[in-house]
Amino acid sequence: MQTIQASNYPIYFNEKGYEALNLHLKENKYSNLFIIVDSNTNEECLPLFLPYLETELTIEIIEFEAGEENKNIETCVQIWNVLTELGADRKSLVINLGGGVVTDLGGFVASTFKRGIDFINIPTTLLSMVDASVGGKNGVDLGNLKNQIGVFNLPTMVIVDTNYLETLPQNEMRSGLAEMLKHGLIYDKAYWEQFLDLKAIDFADFDELIYRSVAIKNEIVTLDPTEKNIRKSLNFGHTLGHAIESYFLENENKTTLLHGEAIAVGMILESYISFDKDLISESEYIQIKTTIKSIFDDIIFLENDIDPILELLIHDKKNEYGTIQFALIEGIGKIKINQSVENELILKAFSDYKS
């Protein structure tokens, strides 16, 4: 697969990435190398990665406990302290080997340590390959509020190696699939239609689907790096999806949702809102709802769940001047940003989801 050139950094695929990484290490005089992993990727992915490394640099492994609940400033402080104790300086290199939590948090740690050191993302989950590792967003959660603290800062390179997907459980694969579905819904109708019958997909060609998803996100981000305009389209399904994810994360009576599981619900809800606003047809809405529900289990919402979810919307990063902003689809494959939605319509969407 051809390398994708993002804004000022390349996205390599499979073996070509390791060749580029080793050449980069030879050509740049780094003082030392730090690999940030979580407890899962330390066990499952690091043994697959290390044999590819060709360097005489001192390598230090920094591990933190896996899970969205650890994507916070406290974990960053711990890692900053470890970097300091191990003699990291402005010529150090950080490699983030992991899913979205690792690449988001590791990128933020590197971007802020000594005002910024080089970092490379090697995503190991489907979600992080097609979403979190592309676009230069780095950050952490503030309590249960998603990605409230962060910076835009670009990695030196990204390496997408789909062999890491063999380490994933099925629910993590489905979680990543949600973002791929989103890319079709907002940008490429033909791409969306490839997922209408999952049984018909030849998973020997799955690398090509991943490649197209990365390309779509990169095309959008390149047009609007700091989310002033068209990049807001990537938030489709995320306004309600993030609120649902945050609510389930903080509520001890709920089972924590994976990011893609929450976004899948968000896309159905926001597709209903698009339908109610006459932006998509009823047949398009039914196709979206049926397809997503055929892949993801239904999430149970009780009557007393909805108001707390709506209250979380006020913290959404896309809000401007106190107004909640939605990105809605205007026909499959097209998007309409900066849309205001009244609470009554959101409640109708939840009611339809549960029906």
Task: Provide structural commentary.
It is a single chain. This protein is of the alpha/beta class. The chain folds into 2 domains: 4-167, Rossmann fold (3-Layer(aba) Sandwich); 170-354, Dehydroquinate synthase-like - alpha domain (Dehydroquinate synthase-like, alpha domain). The protein contains 14 helices and 11 strands. The chain has helices at 15-27, 39-44, 46-49, 73-85, 100-112, 126-132, 170-187, 189-193, 206-223, 238-250, 259-276, 282-295, 303-312, 343-354, and strands at residues 4-6, 9-13, 33-38, 59-64, 93-98, 118-123, 137-142, 145-152, 157-160, 326-329, 335-339. A 7-stranded mixed sheet has the order 1-2-9-6-5-3-4. Strand 1 and strand 2 (9-13) form a beta hairpin. Its cofactor is Zn(2+); NAD(+); Co(2+).
Counted by DSSP, the helix tally is 14
Can you summarize the main beta sheet? Answer: 7 strands, mixed
Order of helices and strands: EEHEHHEHEHEHEEEHHHHHHHEEH
Shape: globular
Overall pLDDT level: 94
Assigned CATH superfamily of the largest domain? Dehydroquinate synthase-like - alpha domain
Q: Reading side by side through the largest sheet, how are the strands ordered? A: 1-2-9-6-5-3-4
Any idea what the radius of gyration is? 20 Å
Distance between the terminal alpha carbons, to the nearest Å?
43 Å
> What is the CATH level 1 assignment of the largest domain?
Mainly Alpha
Secondary structural class: alpha/beta
Number of beta strands: 11
Which percent range describes the beta-strand content? 15-25%
- Can you name the CATH architecture of the largest domain? Up-down Bundle
Number of domains: 2
Query: Percentage of helical residues?
Result: 40-55%
CATH topology of the largest domain: Dehydroquinate synthase-like, alpha domain
Low-confidence stretches: none
Protein name: 3-dehydroquinate synthase
Organism: Flavobacterium gillisiae
Domain 3-dehydroquinate synthase N-terminal: 62-174
Keywords: Cobalt, Lyase, Metal-binding, NAD, Nucleotide-binding, Zinc
